[in-house]
Amino acid sequence: MSSFASSIAKVFYGTLIHSVSVKEIEYISNGLLFVDVHGRIAKIVRDLPRDQFRDSLDGVHESKVVLLNDDQFVIPGFVDSHIHAPQYAYCGIGHDIPLLEWLDTLTFPHEAKFKDAAYARQVYSKAVARSLRNGTTSACWFATIHLDATKELVKVIEEQGQRAYVGKVNMNQNSPDFLKETTQSSVADTRSFIEYVNAINATLGLDTKPLVTPIITPRFAISCTPDLLTELGKLAVEFDLPIQTHLCENLNEIDVTLSLFPGSTTYTSVYADHGLLTHRSIMAHCVHMKDEEFQLMKDKRAGISHCASSNFNIKSGMANVRKMLEMDLKVGLGTDVAGGFSSSILDAFRTSRTCSIARSPDDSLLIPELFYLATMGGARVMELADTIGNFEVGKEFDAILVNTSVRHSPVDIFEHDTIRTKFEKYLFVGDDRNNEKVYVQGKEVRLPDL
Ligand SMILES: O=c1[nH]c(=O)c2nc[nH]c2[nH]1
């Protein structure tokens, strides 16, 4: 066997669909995609007739080939750039209350329960399983302030095999006593958490790229004192880490923030002034941004997670994604469970479309743009565009094998359907039942029954 053939773990033959730019989806029909033993895409061959693809296997044994039928296609896995793991336990309830009241009455009392790591495992096991079932191969998770429970989230993600950024949340002011840290304990626990994840990653072989990365996670400026924000900015530099938080979600939140940080000119500059706005920052929402704030995001190369469902549910407003794209800001989609009621990026795709039409019907987001946001856009926001997001040789194979003709799925296929209409039906009508297989770093994820 040639060295190429022995380096290959899996080959897909059939239709491959991915974004090649924000404006363009490529439909590769009769494609052959080789995944190597490290989970990387080793080679892609286009337009090979069905009766000839075997001649192009380059010595790879046919038993390694996943042969797709006409109702199946492979797409890149979805990226959820903003989701709260503990809030999965009450996903779907409590909508209709604006942000700050929603945090006080529903979210904070619930998150306090995560001082119990066993309870955390119970909720996190389901939250991660549901996210994977929905085809999310990469996610940026908020946990809670609790160190042990956040470690539990890491364990669950490692067991289930998702690519993830995981953040222990920081809160040391304007938070109830039952969910409040001191500056010192918040920094110390964050450091312990980072060291915990880094120690796990250090045990992996040199050939294996870690799937889980710690992420600095001040809840939002309101819940952190300036000295805590400064210390978190220093930790991000010391360990070279990404950062996630909330920004300009709700008008009331912006007023409160500016009153707490009179030395900063805008909400966005609060984070910049404390070393928390970098090319690795992921800012959720960005609904009510001044032009200078967008410009600051651009100057710092920070990313945005657009969370349309949450923005409707808890009445925050409608973000201007068209403007973000025109400025070439990095933007992806977030489900924002449980402000959002669904951990499916397909739902985020649809709600983002509704949001853009409601904002500006003549200039709304088009399908290629939305699909890009769901995949490549999210990869850029996570600063992983060299690793995931579409099918390019050298990237890691994170993907969904979609089947549009599964019994009991919501998609119905007719004779007149083409691969393009099947894909579009999946985007607008499909759900997790159509996600026949999910792959992360080339490995098929065991999708649990839920
Ligand atoms: O949608 C949101 N969910 C949250 O949990 C949160 N905390 C601060 N700001 C927030 N926004």
UniProtKB/TrEMBL annotation:
Do the record's keywords include Kinase? Answer: no
Q: Highest lineage ranks of the organism?
A: Eukaryota, Fungi, Fungi incertae sedis, Mucoromycota, Mortierellomycotina
GO terms for cellular component: cytosol
Q: Which residues form a coiled coil?
A: none
- The protein's name is Guanine deaminase
EC class, as a word, reads hydrolase
Q: Keyword set for this entry?
A: Hydrolase, Metal-binding, Zinc
What is the scientific name of the source organism?
Answer: Linnemannia exigua
Q: Entry's Gene3D superfamilies?
A: Metal-dependent hydrolases (3.20.20.140), Urease, subunit C, domain 1 (2.30.40.10)
